[in-house]
Design a protein that fits this description.
- The chain is built from six helices and no strands.
- It is mostly helical.
- The chain has helices at about 1-70, 75-100, 105, 110-115, 120-140, 150-194.
- Keywords: Membrane, Transmembrane, Transmembrane helix.
Length: about 190
């Protein structure tokens, strides 16, 4: 009789241990699933914010490029206004960049894309061209009336047109970087959702 009681206790004990092990494994799997879900949700929020910024920036770059390429000797007021609007949008976007983009770098590494297109050098080149265009504009605005003033204005304006067209071409590189980053993010999410 003792054997039956011992066997019953051992059977009950084994059942309890197996249930505890299964429960622990189940909890661990559930925890990992919840953690993955939370990370995915956070990444999704971060990517949505970044993609929104990237798209707005692409739109601004396209508007600026178009206006810079239209810029010519006639100094069309509509073209000048387009450039001003694009510059205001640019300032707004770059002020928002930190809050809308910084967290994406926690989850993604875009250094390969930045290296491929020489991102830092590209931005330095764009900034130098922006400075050049502004300096030429300042020189034009501060020319003192003289017999050579008109010729000097024409020469400086031609330089500014040339620098503006170079700036429009230089922006292409940033467009390529943003487009490739966007494609990388979209591809990852398509793969994840399969």
């Amino acid at each position: 009789m003792e054997q039956y009681i011992t066997a019953g206790l051992i059977g009950s004990l084994v059942t309890i241990i197996i249930q505890a092990v299964i429960s622990a494994i189940s909890e661990r799997v559930k925890h990992k699933r919840e953690l993955r879900s939370m990370v995915f949700q956070r990444k999704l929020e971060v990517v949505e914010k970044a993609m929104s910024w990237y798209q707005e920036t692409l739109d601004m770059y396209y508007m600026l490029q178009t206006a810079l390429k239209e810029y010519d000797k006639d100094c069309n007021p509509i073209t000048v206004q387009k450039i001003q609007v694009a510059c205001m949008k640019s300032n707004k976007l770059f002020q928002e960049a930190e809050s809308r983009l910084n967290s994406i770098y926690l989850y993604y590494d875009f250094s390969d894309i930045e290296k491929k297109y020489h991102g830092r050098e590209s931005m330095d080149h764009i900034n130098k061209l922006l400075t050049l265009v502004a300096e030429i504009g300042h020189k034009i605005a501060t020319i003192e009336p003289s017999e050579f003033a008109e010729q000097l204005c024409v020469a400086l304006h031609e330089q500014r047109v040339k620098a503006s067209h170079m700036l429009a071409d230089a922006i292409d590189n940033q467009v390529y970087i943003i487009a490739e980053i966007g494609q990388k993010l979209r591809t990852e999410y398509k793969d994840y959702l399969k």
